[in-house]
Each structure stands twice: as C-alpha cells, then as structure tokens.
C-alpha cells in the first residue's frame, strides 16, 4: 500500500494545509475537487465535459491506489476541503516497473504558495523509500512556466518535447515537455 504520514504546513497566507494519503473515504471530496479544478485550470488534459466519474468510480480509483505498493495518491486539505491532488503510478510491465508517472493539480487559491512543491517533495521522499522505483516522470504544458520551474527546482530534468501534443477546442496547439527525476538510491 502506497502511503505517507500526514504533514501539516503553514502557507505564506497563514493558512494551515495538511498533505496526506487519499483513501476511498475521500471519494466524494476528491470528485468535487476534480470538478472544481477542471472548471478553472487551463493545463489539464481532460475537459470538464469528458470527466464522467461517479462517486463509486472515484472510490474504486482510490481503493486501487491503496492496494498497490508502487502507486500513491496524495491530497492537500485546507479547512476540510481538498485543494490539491497528486497521483503516481508505476509501469505495469516488468521492464518498466522501475519508473512511473505523476500528475498534480492545485486549486487557483493555493497556487504560488509552495504547496505544489511540498506535495512533490512528499512523493519524492516516498519514492526514495520504495525499493522498486528509480525514476519519476511527468508531462507538463510547455507554456506552464511556473510548473516547469517548480519541477526543475526539485530536480526534474527535461527529457523531450512533444510538439503540438494538445489541441484545444479553439484549434490552437500546445506542446508538452516530458520531464524526469532519477531517484538517488545511495
């Protein structure tokens, strides 16, 4: 089971946020959060219209993460509400099981306050302690410079660019940057 000990931090706004493992009991809160973040975040791959998960679907999704030792789902709570979510899933085949991909989103109200960094650092700490994992990867919109800078600050490097990987409803394109962090296991 992938999990961390809860961590509470004080944001620059003087608000107290707790980062902890997401559990199936969080299904409704995570579902509400996901719908909210899709309404405000321009850098997500899934659109609000495409997101059709039910509470039961979300419950099963979170339960699957709890059952797998090489997967992790974290949430950030502020005043009892989910304001951030990060998930990591390693490769399902033997030859790629040593690496996995993370994704993260934050509500607008908490961006730029080091919460994203704290969540990624919790993932890295957990991954360092997992004997199977050697590499964490992610894809980020190339024009999402705050996110790119955050990932570089915690040690990710750019591995490549997928040009015109995203096509928006208005016909414009966005490139994705593939980034990776090689875990120091020494």
Automatic annotation (TrEMBL):
One of its GO terms (molecular function) is acyltransferase activity, transferring groups other than amino-acyl groups. It comes from the Bacteria. Gene3D superfamilies: 3.40.630.30. PROSITE patterns: GNAT. Keywords: Transferase. Residues 17-184 form the N-acetyltransferase domain. This is GNAT family N-acetyltransferase.
